[in-house]
Write a structure and sequence with these properties.
Blueprint (H helix, E strand, L loop, with lengths): L2 H27 L13 E5 L2 E5 L1 H17 L1
Antiparallel strand pairs: 1-2
Length: 73
């Protein structure tokens, strides 16, 4: 595996694992209060039975990798 392919694989695996954690986050928030976590680390939006959880850091990492990939190719 050359460096570029290996790096893409590592970043992809990291983003998949991080995404999986955020998919589980709404389920966890039903039982454990996550309001004490800073909003720059984990943003939780709750309204009635709807939960939306995201991370600004995850979005920034995704945009940085996307920009890097576009500039390299």
């Amino acid at each position: 595996m050359e460096f570029n392919t290996r790096f893409s694989f590592i970043i992809g695996a990291f983003l998949i694992l991080l995404g999986g954690l955020f998919i589980l986050a709404p389920i966890i928030t039903r039982y454990i209060g996550l309001e004490d976590i800073p909003s720059w680390l984990l943003y939780v939006y709750k309204r009635e039975s709807f939960y939306f959880v995201t991370s600004p850091i995850l979005i920034l990492v995704f945009l940085a990798v996307l920009l890097w990939r576009l500039l390299i190719q």
